[in-house]
Amino acid sequence: MKSIGLLGLFFTAAHVHGRHLPINSTNISGFWEDFETYKTNEDLKEVWHSSEAVDEHGRKLFPASWKLFHNPDYVESNRKGLLVKSPGKYAMIGRNIEKPVNLSDSELLVIQYEVKSTKDPHCEGAFIKLFHNMYLESLTNYDRKAGVKYDLLFGPDFCLPDTNMVRFEWRNRKDKEEKKLVFSPKSKLNDGQHKNHLYTMILDLGNKILEIRIDGKVVLATSLNDSQHFKDTKYMSTTDTHEDSSEFNFSIDGLTFDIWGTLSGIVFKNVYIGNSIEEAEIIGNNTYLPNALKENDLILKKLKVKNDGKVPNAKSPYDDNIYSQNLFDILFDKLVGLLEGLSIKHMITVLLVLIPYMLYYLARNHEMKKRIRTEDIVEINK
């Protein structure tokens, strides 16, 4: 499976293969929702539907409201998105896919979309769910507990104090098995700068590989059979009993954002679902990348104002060395390397001997870092 960073592919797509801006849905074979065609919230609601389901007391299960988002700071023709605007409420919205995305046991499934948290997150989910046999009635009556079970869940999830991950759950109907990623990369929702982030999932069923990218950078690539990364659960559903387990071929024809958040201000943009890594990369390079560059320019301008006209360093010289990590991470990494393959008895012995020395060594170097660092170094999370 190829792994090409966004910036590198941007030059490849634009100059080598002659692909020009702007792209449009006619040259993308997969599903792509850029939200640019909607002029009003009423237009949006003609295609995107929220659940009207209620509980036993007649209260809506998903009372949060959604609206069309427009950011004038973004580049022209790529300024709109989907915004959840009701804090502290369950939110659900979804749509049908007119041209379903086929999925077989020898194909790729690629999901990609942008997420922007306009405020500092406290407990925010921003993941997408994919379905087969999802109709309009299924959307308007959607109930996560009693409704249709999703086939795949993917995306960032952040909740203080201990949840910060990119989630992945795959309901493999061929093997009657649910795979849940338990060793996950961090979400980046809490970047402190309210940046747009691009989340890409590549599920290679032929080679049984999962790849996850954030902002075009590969943050996880692992085998679906890796027991350290996945928790597997067998299941049996009455709706699946008619399927021939020797064949696996169905279509994704519906998607939802089904989340709960303490804040309003989560924005979704440029949703792609298809079978092509190249299409996802082209979309990312022509939509996410220009806005990311513009966001960085705006951040630099704000820092320049705060620093009396002096533009700070865009990157601290400590970002790429051991000093940029926290002590717990350094200690954990070193201990894992030392303890691998040892018996429990030997592990305890090594820990008792080495931990005091390591703590002293790390604390001393941490103090040196603070002495060397100068006040005019400003770190920017790229």
Automatic annotation (TrEMBL):
Protein name: Calnexin-like protein
Family: Belongs to the calreticulin family.
Entries under Gene3D superfamilies matching the protein: 2.60.120.200
UniProt keyword DNA-binding present: no
Listed transmembrane segments: 344-363
Organism (species): Candida glabrata
Presence of the UniProt keyword Plastid in the record: no
Record GO biological process: ERAD pathway; protein folding
Subcellular location per the Swiss-Prot or TrEMBL entry: Endoplasmic reticulum
Keyword terms, alphabetized: Chaperone, Disulfide bond, Endoplasmic reticulum, Membrane, Signal, Transmembrane, Transmembrane helix
